[in-house]
Amino acid sequence: MSGLRDYARRHGSVRLRLALISAGMFLLLGTALILVISIVGRSGATLQVTNSFARPTAAGNKVITQILSQPATGFLVRQQNADNDRLLGISWVLLVITAIASIPLGWFASGWMLRPLRRITERTRNITAGNLHERLALVGPRDEFTELGDTLDELFARLETSFDAQRRFVANASHELRTPLTLERTLLQVALADPDVSAVTLRAVCEELLASGREHERLLEAMLTLASSERRLEHRVRTDLAGLAAEVLATPRPEIESQQLTVTTDLQTSATDGDPALIERLISNLVDNAVRHNVAGGHVEVRTSSTDAGAVITVENSGQPIAHGEIETMFEPFRRLGAPRTGPDGSQHGLGLSIVRAIANTHAAAVTARPRAEGGLTISVLFPAPPPAPDADGAR
Fold first, then answer.
1. Domains in the chain: how many in total?
2. Cys bridge to 8: 14, 17, 143, 158, which one at CB 3.0-4.6 A?
């Protein structure tokens, strides 16, 4: 059997391996059956012959009967064994012939069984990045092959969504980077085209170029944060959302004073496991979004709490009314609702909430956004509850 498997593994496909394995199993089981029948037949024949010559005579002389029956008993036993040997030899020949004949039968049977798999392979091979919208759409009884086809269709759907998002991201990033580069080139061309340009003018151009460079740096930093936050976490640390929120709110934000915003907090201990730096960036982006898309004299409220489901961070702000249909759009990269009200801060590129969602997905957290009836937005992020700490004896 091992020789058949090794040969099939080296020289054949799954179809050939199935045919050889089925023939080998048939040969093995047939051999076991012949051996059992041979052993039972020999012992049964000997017992039957012995019993037939061991009967006492009418006179009851058992010793004379036993002595007279011994030669005849030996002859019959030898004859019976010879017949059994011939039958065993014929059975072996028939078994080998049948096992050999089962190989082509197994070949055709396995080919018929593997036909759906070949169709799956052919259709999957034809699906590329350019036609990810196509699906296998297998029909027929529910079995392992249809389940495989449905799983591949779900995979193609996720890949299509990912590829579309990647194309949009690249196109938007190219646009965002091209605009300041065009501005910088225009400033330089205007300055160089003027033969009487003064030092004051050149200094102003240099300051504008520096500001544009800082804008480039913020954009690239946001894009790198978005890319890094979409990776799987390799290390998790027990983190308190309340402490991180307090650190974020301690960072000065001139927009709060300029717009005369009122900031209120309700920070309760709420622990979760994750990357503190990424979670702090998530909270910072939520607060920046609440400040940026606010109105003069409005308010921002930051709350943290702990529930049975996990740790929750909620940021609520006043602002312009937002339609329900625009909620999902806000989380797409480079999408903005209206013009930014503050100066460049690295988040006005439309990556703030995209980073929030990416970080939340990395932590298996759920993001919920709902517009307020009086204007503004409420965004909550639910982080999974951390596992219980081990006891002193190591039990949980």
1. 2
2. 17
Q: What are the tens digits of pLDDT across the range 348-370?
A: 567 788 888 888 988 889 999 99
How many C-beta neighbours within 10 Å does residue 248 have? 20
Q: What is the dihedral of CA 368, 374, 376, 380, to 10 degrees?
A: -20
Token match 């609702």: residue? 337
Quote the tokens at residue 93: 């020949």
> Taking the complete model, does pTM exceed 0.90, yes or no?
no
pLDDT digits over 376-386, tens only?
Answer: 999 999 999 88
Q: Are 302 and 314 in contact (CB under 8 A)?
A: yes
Q: Dmax of the chain from CA atoms? A: 152
Domain residue limits at 263: 237-384
- From 113, 147, 162, the end of a domain falls on 113
Q: How confident is the model at residue 68 (pLDDT cuts 50, 70, 90)?
A: very low
Domain boundary among 97, 113, 129: 113
